[in-house]
Design brief:
The protein is mainly alpha-helical. Helix content is about 75%, strand content about 5%. The protein is built from 7 helices and 2 strands; from the N terminus they run H-H-H-H-H-H-E-E-H. Strands 1-2 form a two-stranded antiparallel sheet. Helix 5 runs antiparallel to helix 7. It is globular. The mean pLDDT is about 85.
Amino acid sequence: MADFFARMMEFFNSTQIPTQFNEVDVKGLFTNGWFMIPFLALVVYQLFKQAFNNLALIGIGMGLWIFSGSHYVREIRVNGEIQMDKVLPLVVVGVVTLGIIIYLYFIRSDD
């Protein structure tokens, strides 16, 4: 089983996903037509379907992606050590995000 996880981590690192999360280029992404045209089509389609829960999830996902590349998140770990004074706001962001998702899908549903 350990070999399986080692191969999965090797594959995950070879895709350079961690590097992409660390180097968020928001301006470059939103000026790229190959991203914007399908993204806007998706948003318009979700508006047409009136799937506001899906639109909220898209917004939350984009917001978390932008937040993950922010200066604040990059400074949480300094010299390999986590700065404990910066963990609480990060936990609050996670709790608020989960609260919004739970509210949208379990408390108030659009059926």
